[in-house]
Each structure stands twice: as structure tokens, then as C-alpha cells.
Specification:
By secondary structure, this protein is α+β, with helices and mostly antiparallel strands. The chain is globular. The protein is built from 16 helices and 15 strands. It has four domains: 68 residues, no CATH class; 121 residues, no CATH class; 171 residues, no CATH class; 68 residues, no CATH class. Helices cover 36% and strands 17% of the residues. The model has no long low-confidence stretch (mean pLDDT 94).
Length: 496
């Protein structure tokens, strides 16, 4: 496909997806020609409608051949985002459209906005489709297992260029509103096609957008306009409930605010949510208790591998105060016999991962107790995946994993077939030295299971990876699901 045909195909795509109109076509064409160094316009060759990914690949390849950009992962991503930015309506248009559709219903508004985010390729649907997904049926419900192949790996040339690049502090982070329309750098993604939607949370300016690497349906980010650090305090519950008032069909949650148990970006206050039901949401309360002073609140311990308290009420104000009571009690709680310390040498360790949702007229909040204590034997965190499981999952257990969705590294995608082969034929590290981290685990599976056959080896690998994720969640639980762990959990409950 020559550059003229590819430009025309992109323009036709933009018109078909209502990103531009026929009145915009010539203006958009000229902008694309300028960016692509195309000086002459010729009558395009009529072609069948092509997928957006194919069109963009053709245009990026042209740019590389013309010496407009280098052939690196970062340069390719920045350039195709620049092209899509030409087709993306201005913020005022997007905000106006969202408000218009929102008058019909919040769900209609997010349906439109999510589709818009995919149409502009901000949500890279073609890449996300490459992720692997399956379900592991655990005693706690259906755990979602994903292997992330949509996030591109770092190109060594990009890493080298980033080291040489002049350090800038604009935007301050990848969650700042200043990312709207930003061209990007070798170390900061381009966002010409990003159009956040404003909202008010607890009297402050916040914005709604979607994650470019969607891990579940309508995976959204709600972020504060002001660049301030993550903080789990009494006000966080009112903020979460404000979001639910605005988007009652979504769940909304926050990563914890401490290293190890927190998310990847602690420098900017934000929440994550979406239109999806996780296993945690369907997990039942296995032990109810009364919260003194809040007798109208339904309270209980959730049947989940981590330590979760669920509070529920139709009165969001009372519920917020009840959640704050639990948070403050947990912040200050120490039980040496259970290896729980509120702080050591002035460093705090206790916090929560809060997740809120609506159940009809009720507001519901799950408070997941977290602790980031480290020891000499467990420098990555005592309540962190056991080192024996790091061959599958080593990274922090953040909000998404807490709720029952494993986000596993892309390296595993290329290893699944070899794992199945080694289960069938024996674990020979000489033939597959790259599989050495998995060797002990694979040998244990072979010794334990007598049902391994050619027709089910792949399914067994996936099942066993799911079982590892369930163990990972249990490792992240402060109070283990043992008789002594349950007793220690109730000991904390009795202090409330």
C-alpha cells in the first residue's frame, strides 16, 4: 500500500468512526501529508476497508523508509499516536458529547466514551486482543488469569536514548492532566489521542479516562487534577462513593498508599474502576460481626485468600465513617504474635486496599488489610508472593490482583508450550535451559498428577498457573486462612 492509499484509508476510517466529518477531510488530509512528507496528492486506488492496525503499520513503515522516524518501538508508538491525534476531536467536543449522552444515562455515556477511546486507538484494542486469558476455578470463585502481551517490551535502543535525553519534569507523571494531547518522548508515552472527561470528586477537580492497556471491561482510571501523592485516609471513602454516584454501574477502588503493597504510581492520587464483576465481588461473607456504634451497618469477613472486611449500608455517610473507623484501627494495630506491626523505627506498615461498589440502593466497601513489613529473609515483603512462586509472579499485588485477576508477565506466553511438553516428556533443563526457574515446580506437578496426557497437558499448565495465583493471593493475606490465622483476624475485629 502506497502512502496516498494509506492516508485515504485512515481518513475513511476517521469518517466511518465519527472522529472527523467529510467537511474535515481535506484539512485532516493536509495535516497527514505534512507529517508524512507527502508533497503530492494523487487519486487513491480504491481498496477494501482495512483494519486500523494495518493502516497505521503501513504509514509508520513509510515514515521509517523516508527517514522521518527511527525504527524503534517508542518511535513507532509515538508516530502512530501522532497520526491518530490528527483525527481525534478537541477536548471541548468530547466533553460536550459525553455530557449529552450522560443525560440519557451514565451507562450510555461510558459505553460511548469507551468505544470512542478504542476508535481513536488510545485503547489499543488490536494489541489487547493478543493477551492470553483463562479462568481458574478456585475455592474462592473464578479467578481470572491473564498474560499481558499488549504492553510493548522496552527496545534497547529506546533505553539507551532515554539515558541520553534531557531530563524534563513535564508532565510530572503519566497520570497528570497535562498528558492530554502530549507528543511524548522516548521515556514518556505520546498522548495526542487522549481526551479525559472532567468530574467532581469530594469538591475537587478530577478526570475520567480509560487505561490504554485494558485488563478487564471498561478498565478506567479516575485521577485528580492536582498532582499530589496517593493517600488512604478518612476522606478516601467519600471520594469513592462520589465516583459511584457519578458512575453507579462501575466499581471503583484504590491501590494502597505504601510501597510493596501499593500500585506502580504512588505519586499521583487516582482510582481504578470499570464495568466488570471480579471473583472478590461474588465472594460471600463467611463470618458476620457487629461494629459498635454502627449497628445499622452490615459487617463481615469475606471468604477470600486475603484478609477482607466488607461493610454495607444504604447510608453512604454512615458507611464512610464506619470504613474510617476500621482504617484508623488497622493503621495503629500491632500483634507481635501474628507478626503484624503498625510501624518499625517510625516507618508505617499498615494500610488498606479499598474497593467500593453499588448493590442496588446499597453502598458496599471491601477493606483489604495490607502490611508492607520486610524481613531479612523476605526483603521484597513478608506479605508478598513467596520466592518459590516468583517464576510465575514476582511483582507487587495491587488492586487488580487483589480482586482476583492475575496480570502475569508476557514472558510466560512463550513458555506455556514448553511447560506442557516438559510435563509430558520429562523436565530436561539441558534441552531447555531457559526453563530452569520452572523446573522444581514442573517436577512437583509431574509427581503429583497422574492424569497428564497429550490432549490435556496445556490445560493442566494453565490450571496449575491458576493455582499458583491463588497461593500468591494467600501469601499477600496478612491473616492466613489457618485456625491460628483466623483467630488472629478475629482478635483484630474484637478491637473495633
Amino acid at each position: 500500500m502506497n502512502v496516498i492509499d494509506a492516508i485515504k484509508a485512515l481518513l475513511d476510517y476517521g469518517i466511518a468512526r465519527n472522529l472527523i466529518t467529510a467537511d474535515d477531510e481535506i484539512c485532516a488530509r493536509n495535516q497527514l501529508m505534512n507529517v508524512l512528507h507527502a508533497s503530492q496528492w494523487e487519486t487513491p486506488t480504491p481498496t477494501e476497508k482495512l483494519p486500523l492496525e494495518e493502516i497505521l503499520t503501513a504509514l509508520v513503515d513509510h515514515a521509517i523508509l523516508q527517514g522521518i522516524i527511527e525504527d524503534t518501538t517508542s518511535a513507532r508508538d509515538r508516530f502512530d499516536t501522532k497520526l491518530m491525534g490528527i483525527l481525534t476531536p478537541m477536548p471541548r467536543e468530547v466533553i460536550s458529547k459525553f455530557k449529552e449522552v450522560y443525560e440519557k444515562s451514565p451507562e450510555a455515556a461510558t459505553d460511548w466514551y469507551y468505544q470512542f477511546s478504542k476508535d481513536t486507538d488510545y485503547v489499543r484494542a488490536a494489541r489487547i486482543a493478543k493477551d492470553l486469558h483463562w479462568v481458574y476455578e478456585s475455592e474462592y470463585g473464578s479467578l481470572d488469569i491473564t498474560i499481558n502481551r499488549s504492553k510493548p517490551e522496552k527496545d534497547p535502543r529506546d533505553i539507551a536514548a532515554a539515558k541520553l535525553a534531557t531530563k524534563v519534569s513535564y508532565p510530572a507523571c503519566q497520570l497528570c492532566i497535562e498528558n492530554t494531547g502530549f507528543a511524548g518522548t522516548v521515556s514518556h508515552p505520546a498522548r495526542q489521542n487522549l481526551r479525559p472527561v472532567p468530574m467532581t470528586v469530594n469538591g475537587s477537580a478530577w478526570y475520567l479516562q480509560y487505561s490504554p492497556y485494558v485488563y478487564y471491561n471498561e478498565h478506567c482510571i479516575v485521577f485528580r487534577e492536582e498532582h499530589i501523592p496517593m493517600q488512604i485516609d478518612n476522606a478516601v471513602f467519600d471520594k469513592l462513593f462520589d465516583v459511584l454516584e457519578f458512575l453507579p454501574h462501575y466499581f471503583i477502588g484504590s491501590n494502597a498508599d505504601l510501597p510493596i503493597v501499593g500500585g506502580s504510581i504512588l505519586s499521583h492520587e487516582h482510582f481504578q474502576g470499570g464495568h466488570y464483576t471480579f471473583a472478590m465481588e461474588t465472594a460471600p461473607i463467611e463470618e458476620h460481626f457487629m461494629l459498635p456504634g454502627f449497628e445499622n451497618i452490615t459487617a463481615g469477613i469475606v471468604k477470600w485468600p486475603m484478609s477482607v472486611i466488607r461493610l454495607q449500608s444504604a447510608d453512604r455517610t454512615t458507611l464512610s465513617r464506619a470504613c474510617a473507623k476500621v482504617l484508623n484501627a488497622w493503621r495503629a494495630y500491632t500483634d507481635e504474635s501474628a507478626t503484624v506491626f503498625a510501624e518499625t523505627d517510625g516507618t508505617p506498615h499498615n494500610t488498606i486496599t479499598p474497593i467500593a461498589r453499588r448493590r442496588g440502593e446499597l453502598f458496599e466497601c471491601d477493606l483489604v488489610l495490607r502490611n508492607n513489613l520486610t524481613t531479612k529473609e523476605r526483603p521484597l515483603g513478608l506479605y508478598h508472593p513467596n520466592p518459590t512462586l516468583h517464576h510465575i509472579k514476582k511483582e507487587n499485588i495491587g488492586l487488580i490482583e487483589v480482586m482476583g485477576l492475575a496480570v502475569l508477565p508476557g514472558r510466560l506466553a512463550n513458555e506455556l508450550g514448553t511447560m506442557a511438553e516438559m510435563l509430558l516428556n520429562g523436565v530436561d533443563i539441558k534441552e531447555h535451559p531457559e526453563m530452569e526457574p520452572h523446573a522444581t515446580w514442573l517436577n512437583e506437578i509431574r509427581a503429583r498428577r497422574n492424569d497428564i496426557a497429550a490432549e490435556n497437558a496445556n490445560d493442566i499448565v494453565k490450571e496449575e498457573i491458576g493455582a499458583v495465583f491463588a497461593e500468591v493471593l494467600a501469601d499477600a493475606g496478612v491473616f492466613k486462612r489457618t485456625p491460628s490465622g483466623k483467630e488472629a483476624f478475629l482478635k483484630f475485629i474484637h478491637t473495633l
